[in-house]
């Protein structure tokens, strides 16, 4: 029976292929294991820890699809496999956001936006995509629902795919802007070029897959694309395996620093350790103003620019950052840092002076002023 032939009693319309899922289960399993091994080897937890998880979602989806191939009248298998397989690609996109964020941390003075905001902004919007997919895919695949209810599901999935396409476009423009700046300053090493090119290819692959799904759901489940399984295997399974293969061959953990505090000096050669580029704005403000436009207007953002400081000044800031670091329990109980003497809300409820260990990390301007004052005093004493 051909991949587009109707199979009586099958809620898939066709009789699902029984061999292809096994092949991709094996391929994604091997790929996921390699991802995990490389993440451990290069200690790139914050950048690539989700790669094995993305592979696991695809494996779970193909496994249920294989079971469904032998139970073509069981709606549960169709819904579960659809939701799981559609959840994998957004996670791969999420990984790309983390990778670009790490690149921007490495050359912070050329970053179009705060590196931490790259992760939180795109991750937050990506989470919206996942919610829309989860709510829409099962409705769309559930043939027991009314036509109107299934159409609502299709609209939710379509909205998610449109949002994903917009995210990928914005992500590509952001990466390209940084790439242009770094090229102009001649600061791109071979490893950084490879990482950026891999990001472009990976984002393109995920976008192609997104367009395929978008066409599928816009045309509906009576379309040629939906009723021919071959489209699924090419534009979902094969293309996403090529993406995971790409990230295995050119693993970003091998080419990027392990810590966000490591940055490249303006000479393009020396690597230095800073305090990390913190953003002390309230979380809700960063959501609505990820580019910190207000900081650019008021000049406040210049106070956080540590990359032109001396090694002694950086050492002092690192010590202050370490002293002010919250415990794991405090971060877990108050993830948005609302309470406490330095919390966004708590600091307005107390007038007690901060203790030595609770002092805020001084800005670059404060450090410079203090250093200049000290130098002036030393000169005065000598005279």
TrEMBL record:
The biased composition feature labelled Basic and acidic residues covers 367-383
Q: Where in the cell is it found?
A: Membrane
Which Pfam families does the entry link to?
A: RTA1
- Is the keyword Transmembrane assigned to this protein? yes
Transmembrane regions:
20-37, 49-65, 77-100, 121-140, 152-174, 194-215, 230-250
* Lineage top rank: taxon: Eukaryota
The record's region (Disordered) falls at 359-383
Location (main, coarse): membrane
Tell me which UniProt keywords the record has, alphabetically.
Answer: Membrane, Transmembrane, Transmembrane helix
User: What does the record say about its membrane topology?
Assistant: Multi-pass membrane protein
GO CC entries:
membrane
**Is Transmembrane helix found in the keyword set?**
yes
User: Which PANTHER family does this entry report, sorted A to Z?
Assistant: PROTEIN RTA1-RELATED, RTA1 DOMAIN PROTEIN-RELATED
Q: What is the protein name for this chain?
A: RTA1 domain protein
* Lineage of producing organism: Eukaryota, Fungi, Dikarya, Ascomycota, Pezizomycotina
């Amino acid at each position: 029976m051909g991949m587009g032939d109707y199979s009586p009693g099958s809620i898939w319309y066709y009789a699902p292929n029984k061999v292809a899922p096994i092949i991709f289960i094996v391929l994604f399993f091997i790929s996921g294991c390699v991802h995990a091994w490389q993440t451990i080897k290069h200690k790139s937890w914050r950048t690539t820890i989700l790669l094995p998880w993305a592979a696991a979602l695809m494996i779970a989806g193909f496994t249920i699809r294989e079971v469904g191939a032998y139970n073509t009248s069981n709606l549960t298998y169709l819904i579960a496999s659809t939701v799981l397989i559609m959840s994998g690609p957004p996670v791969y996109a999420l990984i790309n956001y983390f990778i670009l964020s790490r690149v921007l941390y490495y050359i912070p003075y050329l970053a179009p936006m705060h590196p931490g905001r790259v992760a939180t902004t795109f991750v937050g919007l990506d989470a919206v995509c996942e919610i829309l997919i989860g709510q829409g895919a099962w409705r769309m695949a559930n043939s027991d629902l009314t036509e109107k209810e299934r159409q609502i599901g299709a609209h939710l999935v379509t909205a998610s795919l449109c949002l994903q396409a917009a995210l990928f476009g914005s992500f590509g423009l952001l990466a390209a802007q940084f790439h242009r700046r770094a090229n102009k300053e001649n600061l791109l090493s071979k490893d950084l070029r490879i990482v950026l090119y891999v990001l472009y290819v990976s984002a393109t692959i995920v976008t192609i897959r997104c367009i395929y799904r978008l066409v599928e759901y816009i045309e509906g489940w009576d379309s040629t694309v939906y009723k021919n399984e071959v489209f699924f295997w090419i534009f979902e399974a094969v293309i996403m395996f090529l993406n995971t293969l790409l990230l295995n061959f050119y693993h970003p953990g091998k080419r990027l620093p392990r810590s966000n505090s490591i940055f490249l000096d303006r000479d393009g050669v020396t690597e230095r350790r800073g305090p990390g580029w913190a953003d002390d704005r309230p979380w809700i403000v960063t959501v609505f103003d990820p580019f910190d436009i207000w900081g650019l207007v008021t000049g406040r953002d210049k106070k956080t620019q540590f990359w032109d400081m001396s090694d002694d000044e950086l050492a002092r800031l690192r010590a202050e950052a370490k002293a002010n670091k919250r415990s794991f329990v405090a971060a877990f109980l108050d993830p948005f840092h609302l309470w406490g003497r330095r919390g966004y809300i708590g600091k307005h409820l107390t007038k007690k002076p901060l203790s030595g260990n609770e002092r805020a990390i001084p800005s670059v301007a404060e450090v410079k002023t203090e250093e200049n004052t000290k130098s002036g005093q030393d000169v005065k004493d000598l005279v």
